[in-house]
Structures are given as C-alpha cells and as structure tokens.
Amino acid sequence: MAIQLSLRSGTLTAALEGEIDHHTARELREEIDSAASRTKPKKLVLDFSKIHFMDSSGVGLILGRYRLISQWGGKLYVANLSPNLERIVSLAGLKEICTIYRRDENEQESNQ
Amino acid sequence: MNKKAINEMEISFPSYSSNEAFARAAIASFAAQLDPTLEEICDLKTAVSEAVTNCIIHGYKDSIGIIYIVVKLYENRQISVKIRDKGCGIADVQQAMEPLFTTGGEERAGLGFAVMQSFTDKLTVTSKVGKGTTVTMRKYFSRRLTSNEQG
Predict the structure, then answer these.
(1) The complex's ipTM?
(2) Which end of chain B is more exposed for a tag (fewer CB within 10 A), N or C?
(3) Given CB atoms, is B46 within the 8 Å cutoff of chain A?
C-alpha cells in the first residue's frame, strides 16, 4: 500500500496504490487527513488509478474524507475508478457527494 | 447445488486485520481451479473481504479470535464459501443486512452485506448472540467456451 500526496494551487491530490481494505484504509486515512487538515485544500482528489482491489472500506474512506473537507467547504473528487471499483461505489450512491471522473474525460483539469 | 463437493479446503487464522488480504487471496487461488473470469474472481475476493472484515470488526470487536473458512468446489463451476466466527453474534440479522446500516463508526460505509449480496449468487447469514456468526456465500461461475468451441 502506498500513497503519494501533492499540493498544487489549492488542490490536494492523493494518488493511492495497491489494495484498499479495512487493514490498509487506516494508514491511508491517517496520511490523507494529516495533509488535508494542515493545508485545508479547496479540492481533494483521490486518484484510484493504481488501486487494483477495493472492498467497501474504500467507500468508507471516501465518505470519511468527504466529511473532513466539508468542514471548510472543500470539494471531493474521485478519479479513475476501474469498472470493478465503480460497482462498489455505485452501491453507496456516492455521486451525490463527490465528482467522479476518469482521467481522459478531465485531462485538462488534472494537468493544471 | 450438487451435493457432493469435488474439492474442498479449510483454513483458520486469528482475526488480525493483516489477514484480510491473505484470506481473499487464498480463496481466490483455490477457486482458480474452476477457471473463473477475472471479474468473477474479483467479485469473489470482494465478497470474502467483506465477510472476513465483519468477523474482525464486529464478531471479535476489540479482541482477537479465530476465523474459520471452509471452501467447497462443485461440478458445474459452483463454489461455496463458509466464513464463521465465534464472536459476539448479531441480535437482529435483518437490520444488520440493510444497506448503510452500521455499528462500525464513521469510517464504515455499512455496505458489507450489500456487497456480499450483489457480488455472489446466494448469501445466507445465521447468527446467535454470544455464540457467533456464520456467513455462507455461493457463486456460480459462468461456463466458459473451450478453444474448440470458440474456433
């Protein structure tokens, strides 16, 4: 499990790598929250392009980060879910609380 | 479901969360004998991960207990996975199975049973307070064409 955090013009991007389950979610949560609480970004992007497995703990991770950045009015973006991950996310109806997109649809935005 | 299994295996391990990845990988590896598609294996791994996580978070809560898994393979590409804990049990199974219901706190989505239900073909949950919970999942892998049939 690995995570890369980068902050660029008010956008905090967390590029996640590996498998997300209840065991690994804890470390991810701590790393993201510590960076987000420090920088209070307007946009938090969770990039799932290198996640090859995720159970509902990943949904919990998304929900929890939504709650956190909502405290200062930040917006949550969930990027590059594979079709398998999208099926789990769709069970939770997350589309109402965050923007879900693929890199190819949003190339310009993610390049900024 | 045919009665006689063509192969079966059992594993048991302590409810450390580091064993979640082991459990789903072990079962996926055993199920590979039925030659499932990648998507079917992914579904199975996800469902197993949910069931094992439930044993860890809810069944054994703040203690460590043993999780018992029995996997059986049947003819016609069917698999059953039974995952059991001897933990606290569930008072109201129906309520626990409702999507978004959780007693796991803010970081849990309450989707465990919903995922098991939608990623397998049959889900049975039996539980007794103070005795533990048993989750049995069955999945039917699609029949794949052999190279002869495809050609």
Answers:
(1) 0.90
(2) C
(3) yes
